[in-house]
Amino acid sequence: MNKHLLSAGDLSRNDALLVLDTAAQLAQVADRPVKKLPTLRGRTVVNLFFEDSTRTRISFEAAAKRLSADVINFSAKGSSVSKGESLKDTALTLEAMGADAVVVRHGSSGAPHRLANSGWIGGSVINAGDGTHEHPTQALLDAFTLREKLAGGEGDLAGKKVTIVGDVLHSRVARSNVLLLSTLGADVTLVAPPTLLPVGVETWPCKVSYDLDPVVPDSDAVMMLRVQLERMTDSYFPTAREYSRRYGLDNHRMSMLREESIVMHPGPMNRGMEITADVADSRRSVIVEQVANGVSVRMAVLYLLLGGYSPAQAEAEQTVEGS
Fold it and tell me: What is the value of pTM for the model shown?
């Protein structure tokens, strides 16, 4: 793997499978009374979040702590950033503190790339979501969940049909999932109104449809995207009710799915808009499992980027394999 994880497109098939296989081993730690490995003891992981987050920040914090790393949580609110400190000065401060990895979430697309390529930080940079660009670890945990449910937890996703529905225009999750799932051999279809598809989507490695109903029956998994009203400055659809009628997942549409098909959502959900409450809480839904899998996948990313081949890593590997 590379030193940084900035884009799902940076991962080869072998890289992606390495992360997923490692996550499968590390997931066993969650079932133990003591949920810790010594792999990253003495390392420092900084969660640098310029945007609010619950799932992603807590997931990275839990992952780092389970690997025995020291964790520093940095929020832009209440920090010197709110006083006008630049990204560069913040990065130099973290470097002076000896950060081995910086997990960054930023409202501007490309901010993690700027950190990684500027020379301001000597450690690894992990993109935890940048603007409307990408969210690679979300794509990895989604792929992990899909593989567990559809492929028995082994190999890639060759031939599996994944439908991603909703606000693709503002979704960093959609872009990363299309890149990663296509790398793993899945057949991806985006479904959205024309107003919620980005310019150049025809160059993405996926199919595009404006109508959900014909696509649902042939899907192994349907991933609903949150409608990001906070990013919308114009009217992208007539009303919330009209959007839900045409692109929402309700019981009727869920009944069109094959028996073994699953329902996903990266969260947080707008219940009643892109997905109804009874579908979100149904037996087909793996939304809660996605959250749990996020910790294992992010442990794997930190393990592979920072663990190297140290004696501590070898000890951790033996511990996992011997469990």
Answer: 0.91
